Amino acid sequence: xxxxxxxxxxxxxxxxxxxxxxxxxxxxxxxxxxxxxxxxxxxxxxxxxxxxxxxxxxxxxxxxxxxxxxxxxxxxxxxxxxxxxxxxxxxxxxxxxxxxxxxxxxxxxxxxxxxxxxxxxxxxxxxxxxxxxxxxxxxxxxxxxxxxxxxxxxxxxxxxxxxxxxxxxxxxxxxxxxxxxxxxxxxxxxxxxxxxxxxxxxxxxxxxxxxxxxxxxxxxxxxxxxxxxxxxxxxxxxxxxxxxxxxxxxxxxxxxxxxxxxxxxxxxxxxxxxxxxxxxxxxxxxxxxxxxxxxxxxxxxxxxxxxxxxxxxxxxxxxxxxxxxxxxxxxxxxxxxxxxxxxxxxxxxxxxxxxxxxxxxxxxxxxxxx
Length: 370
Description:
The chain has 13 helices and 17 strands. The protein is an alpha/beta fold. It has two domains: 210 residues, FAD/NAD(P)-binding domain (3-Layer(bba) Sandwich), CATH 3.50.50; 108 residues, D-Amino Acid Oxidase, Chain A, domain 2. A seven-stranded mixed beta sheet has the order 5-4-13-14-15-12-16. Strands 7-2-1-11-17 form a five-stranded parallel beta sheet, with helices on one face. Strand 8 and strand 9 form a beta hairpin. The chain starts with a strand and ends with a helix. The mean pLDDT is 94.
């Protein structure tokens, strides 16, 4: 029987890999023309019980541990005036509970573990029906099970539910400093080896060290959905955009605005959206969803972990019921709905903290049990 997976993100690839390990063929259809056609974003912290469990089921845990960055678990938490609230430095012998890994490296690991024919690049999904997948180039193919792993703007989702992502009240601008150890060693020392957060006053700055020496910087503004249009940030002029962003952080410690000033010409605006927490749909025997297509959450550390585990557990369910896709889909969805509802509520709670005026102190209380 034919399994078609739409989307070559982490969840879709984890599903294809677990199926491959269990002797089941599947084809992944990806709209991008090649694996390197688009940047994959920054670092991920993979949790032992979710993301790492999925990598273990995929038979890739040793390769993952070789590329994971233990020191990426370091954390520095500050207030806008520069007050240091928390500093966690990871010992060299600390367990790999939540190590950081470059998203692109993890995706390459999954891609390289699959047969070359398992991913069909340049196949933009348009619609499906009567056992046929239709693509933007006019081609089509048959399927017995269709899995939507096509992210926040999933086209497959519409086959199961009318739910659509809605704005969270958070708008993010991504910037970055390349080769920070060489170009700005003082800022490199300030950021440290992992994550650097300054929170408060209805906005935040986070800096995240990547494995390639780049520090990605995310400026968050907790505002209305149309705020980018009213912000006065000229996104088509990077230098002027940086100057405007610095103005928006007037009153913050000068070290934070120095980070913004040191960035290159990457200035990427992103509106943050989510699906309703606890979203479900009536089980359909030949279609299901995973990852952001099923349960888009605020970007606070759960999304990629949930997507990877979705893929692994759906793969295991299909391996356990190779001749009964409806039973496998039903088993997978029952577990997934419960697990991701809990994760969605937790993510929403963290998002609420980040949007509060005293976010720094509240996040300190959140981290203290660790």
